[in-house]
Amino acid sequence: MNVLWIFAHPEGRSLNAALRDEGLKALDEFGHAHRMSDLYAMKWNPVVGYDDFAHDPGKRMLVATASQEAYESGRLSADVLAEQEKLAWADAVVLQFPMWWYGMPAILKGWFDRVLVKGLGYGITADDGTVLRYGDGKLTGKRAMVVTTIGARESGIGPRGIHGELTDLLFPLHHGTFWYTGIEPLPPFAVLGADRLDEAGFTAAVGGLRDRLRTLSTAEPIPFRHQNRGDYDENLVLRRDLAPGRSDLAIHQRD
Fold first, then answer.
1. Which 3 state secondary structure label does DSSP give 207?
2. Cα–Cα dist 3/246, whole Å
3. Domains and CATH numbers, the chain
4. What interhelical angle do 199-214 and 15-29 show, nearest 10?
């Protein structure tokens, strides 16, 4: 497989960097090709702006429209084009970051904001006018896995833990970004209690990461429901007969 490893941590001597290095070694051992986007090292600009689309700053910019026009005419900025080329090359994406304030670092959010422009990540329709999203789109066929470190202890992460369930914390990324664009998200790999990890804990984390990377091409993705296969009505509301009486986020997964 071709694997794009997107890394978002500012410290090259961090736990995250050590895990990344071990992960890339494992990909080599397993026979996968890989490329990396180290966003902090690249000094990636996370802010959408006129320069992304060669847009005249004297004219009002509608971001979605401007991004699509620039994408389709080849006028996107060079840094965005380079990341889109990596994404096109990849069969799988490993997205690695420390969880900060219940989400990814701003620099990584800005990668998605700038790279997944209209016409690539969204705003895509079939010949019959069907909107292609949530399981369909130009990125269908790719898969992605989150690798994250969390300072909270394991006891605080869960359905009754004060920090919430990990799958719920990552729902906006798994469902609202990956699955929305057609990418199949795999279950995440998380290192909990990261700030207190000892040598034995690090060894266990490396072993767990290697195991997950070993099955990167074969693991079952999170079974999210497709938008266009009959589970949702014309208003994009889940049918009453599916997961009746429930309103939790897990209703958007097939049984």
1. helix
2. 37
3. 2-222 (3.40.50.360), 225-255 (no CATH)
4. 40
Task: List 153's β-bridge partners, or say none.
Answer: none
- The full DSSP string for 108-132 is HHHHHHHHS-BTTTB--B-TTS-B-
Return the ∠ at Cα 143 (arms to 145 and 248), rounded to 5°: 65
Q: Encoding tokens for residue 157?
A: 């992460």
User: Quick check: pTM over 0.85?
Assistant: yes
Q: Helices in 30-94 by DSSP H: which ranges?
A: 39-42, 63-73, 78-89
Residues 235-250 pLDDT 10s: 999 999 999 999 999 9
What single-letter DSSP state applies at residue 164? B
Interval 120-173: pLDDT, tens: 999 999 999 999 999 999 999 999 999 999 988 887 888 889 888 999 999 999
Supply 232's token pair. 């949702």
Q: Within 10 Å of residue 86's Cβ, how many Cβ atoms?
A: 18
